[in-house]
Amino acid sequence: ASEQRLQQALDIFGSLGTRWQLGRTHFAWGELAAAQMDVVAARHHFTQAQRLFAAMQAAPDLARTHNALAALA
């Protein structure tokens, strides 16, 4: 159920071209996956978020995402 809502959010934000919201949604999905011990999915979503935040030079979000990825190791 949560994954469906997150996918809907990605679809909507993708169609609107709102990169920051896309990044935040990927980050939230990464947090959910990490909580469910799905490291592969968590790494995927955190990496997607990291790419979006880096492209926007969103330093606070980029730092938070970097820390989340490091915590998976």
What does this entry look like structurally?
There is one protein chain. The protein is mainly alpha-helical and 73 residues long. The protein has one domain (2-72). Helices cover 88% and strands 0% of the residues. It contains 4 helices and no strands. It has helices spanning 2-16, 19-35, 39-56, 59-72. Helix 1 packs antiparallel against helix 2 (19-35), helix 2 runs antiparallel to helix 3 and helix 2 runs parallel beside helix 4. The longest helix has 18 residues, at 39-56. The mean pLDDT is 97.
Strand proportion? under 5%
Global mean pLDDT: 97
Total individual domains: 1
Radius of gyration: 11 Å
How many helical elements?
4
**Share of helical residues:** over 70%
Structure classification: mainly alpha
Secondary-structure element order, N to C: HHHH
Query: What is the terminal-to-terminal distance?
Result: 27 Å
What is the total tally of β strands? 0
Largest sheet: none
Which residues form runs of ≥5 with pLDDT under 50?
Answer: none
Shape: flat
Give the SSE layout.
Elements: H1 2-16, H2 19-35, H3 39-56, H4 59-72
Brief sketch in words of this structure:
The protein has one domain. 88% of the residues lie in helices and 0% in strands.
Brief descriptors of the model:
single chain; flat; 73 residues; mainly alpha
